[in-house]
Design a protein that fits this description.
three-stranded antiparallel β-sheet; 1,3-beta-glucanosyltransferase; 1,3-beta-glucanosyltransferase activity; Glucanosyltransferase; signal; glycoprotein; TIM Barrel; 447 residues; alpha/beta; 15% strand
Length: 447
């Protein structure tokens, strides 16, 4: 989430003419699945634009799942219908709970879900990614896929959110998030689920925005994302040019994957959501596939468009009407609106002092997680789980796969460097690093 409310990569221990109704008619309990092809999303042969809102009542600290409580979700779905959105993003769910009623109600309202597969306890630690990429973490992520793949209105999964940000050194986490993206895509394929797109939600950091985007779309097909999204708060009572969106469109032209905004909506002034007009205009639709406005409920960071009382009563704020008006005034265009038919890879970004990632090295999946492809992940850990960020015993990556920036000879061989060219991931290094961690924790206990 914006302003530090990040759910993936949380450092836990280290401190588009159709309107929604025309485009997506109500169905009894199902919606046609959305697919990613070329640089756009599709429902059948019709272009699909994300015209949605971010949804996590209580914020990142609530540790609650809005899709597991029908009294909450049904209340809010009525508001979503009034707004005219066709997609919501939910940042965390409890994969041990039942979501049938809420997901069915969303489908009946013509609304899709983009879901973050991580929780604060089960995520990649941006400052110490190696031990957090382990078997227990992947088991929980795969279990979330198992729960939500059965719903046709599950549009996509996020493998991470703002794990890489403006903090120095966080780019070393990029190979681990890319590995998770690869593993999630493989799990969906191996379990013979429909092809639900998997991608990353990036922070809009000028210093590494394009490197991040290129990194998740370079290399062989099996290591690339299905889409790329980023959070953008640069439109502050401005316009398409002043906000710099024209330059971003130019930078992403020819990128080769669907792109959308996973968060937008600068709140430094009263918002009129002119972003919707731009996102649905011919200036952007050849490159972007819409976006998700941040956010539905008013939290401490003051981005909400409704206020929910302690008794659960919903009050629409002024910006609720503004967002509803923008969506109605600027519907999705008809036709392909400039989309390209072919998906294409880009060159990997070069490693340098600011982008500390060797483009040719990617962590191999922990061998302890291989069984989930044939057996399934089983029951997830939910919010009550112990967490996975330092669960060495569940198995960590014992080697890297080299040659991942290109197809051809060399791919699949072992290496002694980690994905940032820093750390030996062989058994000896695991022993040494694990021992160092143990001594560190022991020392902490003595303080």
């Amino acid at each position: 989430m914006h302003a530090g409310l990040v759910l993936s990569g949380l450092v836990a221990l280290v401190a588009a003419t159709p309107t929604v109704e025309k485009q997506l008619p109500n169905r009894a309990a199902s919606l046609p699945a959305v697919t990613a092809s070329g640089n756009a999303f599709w429902v059948g042969n019709e272009r699909f634009y994300i015209r949605g809102i971010d949804y996590q009542p209580g914020g990142s600290s609530s540790d609650d799942d809005p899709l597991a409580h029908p009294d909450i979700c049904l209340r809010d779905i009525a508001k979503f219908k009034k707004l005219g959105v066709n997609t919501i993003r939910v940042y965390m769910v409890d994969n041990t709970l039942d979501h049938d009623e809420c997901m069915t109600a969303l489908a009946e309202a013509g609304i899709y879900l983009v879901l973050d597969a991580n929780t604060p306890k089960y995520s990649i630690n941006r400052k110490d990614p190696f031990p957090s990429y382990n078997g227990a973490y992947l088991q929980n992520v795969f279990a979330t896929i198992d729960v939500f793949q059965k719903y046709d209105n599950t549009l996509a999964f996020f493998s991470g959110n703002e794990v890489i940000n403006e903090e120095p050194g966080t780019t070393i986490s990029a190979p681990y998030v890319k590995a998770v993206t690869r593993d999630m895509r493989r799990y969906i394929k191996e379990r013979k689920y429909r092809g639900i797109p998997v991608g990353y939600s990036a922070a809009d950091v000028s210093e590494n925005r394009m490197q991040t985007a290129h990194y998740f779309n370079c290399g062989p097909d099996d290591t690339r994302s299905d889409f790329f999204a980023f959070n953008d708060y640069s439109w502050c009572s401005s316009n398409y040019t002043v906000a710099g969106w024209d330059r971003k469109v130019a930078n992403f032209t020819g990128y080769g994957l669907p792109i959308f905004l996973s968060e937008y909506g600068c709140n430094t002034n009263k918002r009129d959501f002119g972003e919707v007009e731009a996102l649905m205009s011919s200036e952007m639709t050849g490159v972007y596939s819409g976006g998700l406005m941040y956010e539905y409920t008013m939290e401490t960071n003051k981005y909400g468009i409704v206020k929910i009382s302690s008794s659960g009563e919903v009050t629409e704020l002024d910006e609720f009407a503004n967002f509803r008006s923008a969506l109605a005034k600027y519907p999705a265009p008809s036709g392909t609106a400039g989309a390209t038919a072919t998906t294409s890879a880009v060159d990997c970004p070069a490693q340098d002092a600011a982008w500390e990632v060797d483009p040719d090295i990617l962590p191999a999946m922990p061998t302890t997680a291989e069984k989930y492809f044939s057996e399934g992940a089983g029951t997830g850990q939910g919010f009550a789980g112990l967490g996975s960020q330092t669960d060495w015993d569940s198995g960590v990556s014992a080697q890297n796969i080299t040659g991942t920036s290109k197809s051809g000879p060399g791919a699949g061989s072992g290496t002694s460097e980690d994905a940032a060219g820093r750390l030996n991931l062989g058994a000896g290094a695991i022993f040494v690093t694990g021992g160092a961690l143990a001594f560190s924790l022991f020392g902490t206990l003595l303080l």
